[in-house]
Amino acid sequence: MQNRSFYNEILTEHNIRPEFKHDLENPDIVLEGVNPSCGDDVWLKLKLDGDTIVDGAFVGDGCAISQASADIMLGMIVGKSKDEALRLGEIFMKMIQGEATDEEIDSLEEASALKDIAHMPARVKCAVLGWRTLKEAIGDK
Ligand code: ZN
User: Fold this and answer.
1) Rounded Cα distance, 111 and 63, in Å
2) How far apart are the first and last CA of the chain?
3) Cβ atoms < 10 Å from Cβ of 52
4) How many Å apart are CA 141 and CA 29, to the nearest integer?
5) On the CB side of 127, how many CA atoms lie within 13 Å of its CA?
6) What is the pTM of this model?
7) Ordered per-residue pLDDT tens for the chain, 141 residues
8) φ, ψ dihedrals at 98, nearest 5°
9) 50 CA to centre of ligand 1 in angstroms
10) How many angstroms separate the alpha carbon of residue 93 from the centre of ligand 1?
11) Within 10 A of 81 (CB to CB), how many other CB atoms are there?
């Protein structure tokens, strides 16, 4: 188990140098996710080839947790199938609700940096904003 400052470092790094926070030309899917309780705003943009997410990015504004979480999420889902991405999202939701096993949390790689959010109810909507928007964008309606 890594310590808390290690997790904070991951979040800080994704805020200072987000890899996926930029515009994306000709996306197949564009969806805005909003968390009014904090003022977080994320525009998720995805390129699909069949069922595979071949590229993705986001633009938006908001608190450090919402923006870092979206950046981490994109790093995990680009190159994956829609089903795999949705499954990761389900595990992430479980973790945020404090219901994931250690094994499931480990499978979330960098996103596991957000597991302490389970103890911060006010920040839950920030942490799940990107994932919730993803589910709306590619999940079964
Ligand atoms: Zn927020």
Assistant:
1) 16
2) 37
3) 14
4) 14
5) 23
6) 0.94
7) 456 677 789 999 999 999 999 999 999 999 999 999 999 999 999 999 999 999 999 999 999 999 999 999 999 999 999 999 999 999 999 999 999 999 999 999 999 999 999 888 899 999 999 999 999 999 975
8) 75, 25
9) 33
10) 16
11) 15
Which of 8, 120, 134 lies closest to 80 in space, CA to CA?
Answer: 134
d(CA 117, CA 86): 20
36: its two tokens: 């009014």
Written as six digits, the tokens of 25 are 């030309």
Separation of 41 CA from ligand 1 center, angstroms? Answer: 9
Distance CA 29, CA 129 (A): 16
Say if residues 48 and 134 touch (Cβ distance below 8 Å).
no
Q: How far is the CA of 28 from the centre of ligand 1 (A)?
A: 27
Strands of the chain (E only): list them.
29-35, 40-49, 52-61
> Separation of 34 CA from ligand 1 center, angstroms?
10
Query: Quick check: 128 and 73 in contact, CB under 8 A?
Result: no
Which residue shows structure tokens 């994109």?
74
